[in-house]
Amino acid sequence: MKRKEAISVLKELLDNCTGLDGHYFELVPPYVPSPVDGGYQIVINAALDKKTKDCITPILTKHQLAYQTGSMWKMSKNKTEPDTFIIYRPTQKT
Asked: Most exposed of 28, 62, 78, 89 (fewest Cβ within 10 Å)?
């Protein structure tokens, strides 16, 4: 997604999803190597509860965005460590 859109989506998420308060956010530029494509990405490092995920989903659907989740610390035995929640624009197939 374009930078301006990513900032707008992030603002909308923060305005509407109170469960995101206090979490770590990162706006990742498109030049960073990644398995997903489509410009800027929003990365949230947090263990998101169901209520927060249920708040995020309709906003992402409205903007035609996708997400993937997973632990950055796969080898960790501490399950309280945050997950990585990546929001991105899927590549358009032509």
From this structure: 78
Q: Please, how many CA atoms are within 13 Å of residue 30, restricted to the half-sphere of its CB?
A: 12
d(CA 4, CA 27): 11
Residue 27: CA count within 13 A, CB half-sphere: 12
In this structure, what DSSP letter does residue 62 have?
A: H
The single-letter code of the amino acid at 55 is C
- Residue 83 domain-assigned? no
Q: Tell me the residue length of the chain.
A: 94
Q: Is 91 a member of any domain? A: no
The answer to the question of residue 87 being in a domain is: no
Structural domains in the chain (count): 1
The tokens describing 8, both together, are: 């707008």
Amino acid letter for position 62:
K
pLDDT digits (tens, 9 = 90+) for 55-93: 999 999 999 999 888 765 444 455 545 578 889 888 765
pTM of the model: 0.77
